[in-house]
Structure of Carboxylic ester hydrolase:
Amino acid sequence: MTKQFNYDDLPVIQTKQGKIRGYQSGGTYIFKGIVYARAKRFQKPEEPECWDGIKEAASYGYVSPMLQEDVPNGELMVPHRYWIQNENCQNLNIWTQSLDKMAMRPVLVWFHGGGFSMGSSIEQKAYNGENMSKYGDVVVVTVNHRLNILGYLDLSQYGEKYADSANAGQEDLIAALKWIKENIKEFGGNPQNVTIFGQSGGGMKVSGLMQMKEADGLFQKGIIMSGVPDKSYKYSDKDSTPLITALLEELNFTEDEVEKLEDIPYAQLAQAYNKVSPKLEAEGEYVGCTPKPNDFYKGEGPDVGFRKEATKIPLMIGSVFGEFYMKPQTFFKDEISKEELMKRIGDRFGDWGEELSDVFQEVYPEKNLADLLTLDTVFRCPTKKFIKEFAKSGGKIYSYLFTLEFPYQHGKTAWHCSDIPFVFHNTELVPVTNIPEISDKLEKQMFDAVIHFAETGDPNHLGIPQWPVSTEDREATMIFDRVCTVRFNFDDSLLELYKKALPNLTLANITQEDNQIQH
Amino acid sequence: MTKQFNYDDLPVIQTKQGKIRGYQSGGTYIFKGIVYARAKRFQKPEEPECWDGIKEAASYGYVSPMLQEDVPNGELMVPHRYWIQNENCQNLNIWTQSLDKMAMRPVLVWFHGGGFSMGSSIEQKAYNGENMSKYGDVVVVTVNHRLNILGYLDLSQYGEKYADSANAGQEDLIAALKWIKENIKEFGGNPQNVTIFGQSGGGMKVSGLMQMKEADGLFQKGIIMSGVPDKSYKYSDKDSTPLITALLEELNFTEDEVEKLEDIPYAQLAQAYNKVSPKLEAEGEYVGCTPKPNDFYKGEGPDVGFRKEATKIPLMIGSVFGEFYMKPQTFFKDEISKEELMKRIGDRFGDWGEELSDVFQEVYPEKNLADLLTLDTVFRCPTKKFIKEFAKSGGKIYSYLFTLEFPYQHGKTAWHCSDIPFVFHNTELVPVTNIPEISDKLEKQMFDAVIHFAETGDPNHLGIPQWPVSTEDREATMIFDRVCTVRFNFDDSLLELYKKALPNLTLANITQEDNQIQH
């Protein structure tokens, strides 16, 4: 017997629309699947209908339908939770320590990753908010919203009701933040102290909302984890006509029958989209599935400039050492000879191999030279650019890099998502991240930084070295590792050299690259 | 830090087709998503292809596609896990304490519930095999297989290759058992001591395999939990022509184009089936989705007689007190007045109410009279009939009834699936079943009975009263509750009276019934 919940005295909360009944786990109150909005397909979300009586809020709600099914693998590195897919997916989950309206605890709102096309609020085991709420005494909210063509398909030229269709997924997030603003006091949260945070696509959702006027005032801070893509990740503002025309044609609808797209089963819509979009994508046309710069959304800050309101949002931002180099390597670094390693480095980086190796060892004296082969640049470089531009615009921004090596495959560098369990205080849920003598300490350091940041806008706490904000010319990077240190512009030379060696490496082609050098 | 796995030294096992790499959790070796067969749609499963190198076996495999999506609710009572759906779903998961070929531990193979149409090997959190393997020192296997029209759609009259289509899902289970017989020694299991067990539809899969010649010798014992439906649950042996004709018509295929059913996307096939089947079902026609008695499958024992080989399989069989009365009651039994309760009983049972109340209190002196309103009969009565017939045929059978009341909704009687965490030693994973001072003891009693039964064919152990086999005329029922007792034909009178009061109550209409008396 580990713990017992009181199931006969379940917490009931009055929301604006009606009462909901959650449950309690230890000292944490939990509410799941709360509907924050409803929406017709491609249309702007509206407030949910009111109800009488008490709705159950102990089960996770629907997650957005997706265009493709995942292939189950890599569960040791990133354990997943899948859930039931349905278009009525505007719902959120809450973990809190108090139901006192006066508690006014900081609110952390998690936007999940998976680009803008996949994932869910519960896709990864590490997204569970119970520990974060408990150890941080904060209110944690995780959000589901419309994804892929349901959330990001520009139909605006086909009617006023589709005005927001290009960014409907973002509109859902805004609706969630409005719901939070109106209701979170009842859950012990402070509606004036909301931090939005997310990883990968979730980070892009954070930066995206900063550039949407409609979201102003709905959050006060942001954390962007491995969430700044390079320009190969297209936020296309091109005309959507070619895509919609092809879609209608594939479905045997006329140009006048766009409304039929609202009613056909999602599976059919997805099938048609999957058939027509690759060709258009190859031609550089608009294919949806990412936010589209328009009247509602200015475009990403580093590209088009940050909105003045955006620069008022303090940010924590960073990435991890290895990111998309997730597949098993063809060798183990503790077994390979120096000669063989240098050959592999040469194979990859050509004439630049030796110089890169030297600089890598200067920049990362504690790392194995083999780690050069899994060094991420496609997140790190755009992140650095983001930091520079945001600081230049007067924004307050804290930079980090997560460089922990894991005892997996003889010492794997930190992969995409491997930092999430630390941020959520959930390394106990993801065993591979739970390294004896190491993880507990680092988890506390990272977690406390996040909580302090959510409370005050400053991540500094006594458990880490002094972490200054970054300026336009001086990036002050907190290195999260077995020993945490702050370093200044520490990898500029390395990244510049890397770019010379592999000028064409982008987020868009990293996966193929990855397949070439590893298996 | 709770536990650390050794991820740098992962266990690799040689199976007949190739090597697989699992992982270790504490002392338990875990292998997930092992493909035991492959099959073309509607066709007999074949051995998987061989491979070189090492396949990862640390991620759960695909689960069968389903006709309808679930609606998320009731997670406190039955917490779920969903997974990725794909027709290539013939895979299994293994938990074991030893990789010594000489260990020869008993093997327990779990067939999941959800009728023959839904669910998966990991659908419920309680299906996790780690604790069962650890606390019982046994090898646990859980199995995915084809469901609904993929597993049970009779196309046999359309070609020899479809000969097994009516029971393809069962053929998958047989293929899994063959794989186990050939490979389980490598996982420390005894291929000559295999117990198949399942709940609800999973129990029906156990009894079904007993009636299939092809499964003879592949298992030695069986456990059927809440898995004997009454005759309203149709295993139709009617001609499938009306269904297939309607299906072809709906899809605009001719009678000659049955093969096209093999190639269209499942979503399309499911949509057509969902459209045409309700009318045929209402007319009493064959609609698939359950095993069909034919040359391969004799039909259920209580209906058509047990095969001689079936009667050689020792069985444990039972059900739970409340089964499908799962919804919240409109009153709390600790708050309702005697008068109001008698009125409700009268509303439900008419003139029989008073006599039923008296008999109920004689039979269940420890229970609240209000529990009469949630007493299951639609599983209990057919289970009693099964026991009688099996004993009469010379079979060795142990009867149980799980009557635990849970501290939920002011004392909820045991619902369908509430016993599973006890059998798997997983009450710690399902908090509502984890009652202080109660669950640990009962869990050990039930779990040890299951393990002893798997080891020896006899569930008796020192922690429970002597549990005799049942005979044709004397059902010896182990009552699993706060105090375990053995009772003889203890509820015959009650059930007879109940049947007089509600002669038309069946499994098929219990849900409507349920909706009438509760909400």
User: Anything to note?
Assistant: Chain A has two domains: 12-234+293-313, 317-517. Chain A touches chain B through 50 residues (CB under 8 Å). Residues 47 and 280 of chain A are 36 Å apart (CA to CA).
